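Input record (one chain):
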Amino acid sequence: MARREGGNHRDVVVLRTAQEGWRELYPADPFNAPVLEAALFGRYPCVAVVDRTTDATQCVVKTNYIFTFVSPGADAQFVKEAIAKLLESGDDFGVVWPSEAPGVLPKADAVVARFEFRDLDAGARPSVDVVPSGTRLERIDAQLLERCMWRDEMVRFAGSTTAFLRQGFGVVLLRGEEILSEAYAAFLGNRIAEIGAVTAEPHRGKGYATMTTAALIEECQARDLAPRWTCNEANAASVAVARHLGFAAERKYWIHVYSPQSA
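The corresponding structure, as predicted from the sequence alone:
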C-alpha cells in the first residue's frame, strides 16, 4: 500500500512492498548487497520511500535490520524528506554509505566504521571435519531456533520464524543440548548471502565461531551462494573470525545512524 505526501518539488511515496525493479537504481555490488536484495526481492519485510509509485528514479529502502539503503541518484532534499518519514516509525536505523563524509545525507547522530569481507580463499578456510570431543554441528530447525541466542533477531529480520526458516538457514555447535555457537545466513540475495555468528559468552575465545561458520559456509557453497561477512571495525573478535575464515578481500564502509529521539 502506498501513502503519497505532497512536497514542494515532488511527491514522497511511502511503500511497504518492495519492487524488484528498484534494484536497477542501486550499484551492481553495493555494501551489504544480500540485505538490500532480500528486501527488494520480497523475501523479507521493508519500508521504502520513492519519488513515484511507478518508474521511480529515487529510492530509500529501510529493512527490518538496522541497514537502510539510499539509491545513488537521490538528491539531498529527497533524502532528507525520506529519512524524516522513516524516523516516524520510532526506530533507529543506519544508512549504508561508502564514505565517512555524508554527501547528500543529512547530519547523522553517529557514524560507525565497518568492514565487509568477501571472496573466500578456499584453501585458507578451516576444515570442519573435526570438532571438539563431545560436540556436534547441527542445522537450525524450528525447535533449535527457539533456544538460540539470536532467535529474536532472526524473527525480526524475516518477520516470523516460518519466514526465516524458509528464506534463511543456520548451523549450531552443541555440547549435549547446550548451544555453544550459532552461525546464520540470514539474508540471501542473488547468489550471495550475508552471514554472521555469535558464541555464548562462557565459550568465547575457543574458536567455536570459526568452526560453526566454516560449516555454514559449506552449506552456502552447496547452495551456490557466495558468503559475505560484515561487522563494525571496532568489533575486533568479529574481524578476527572473518580473517581466519579466509576471506581474501576487505572493503571499508560506514553506517550513518539516525535516531527519532534526535529528530
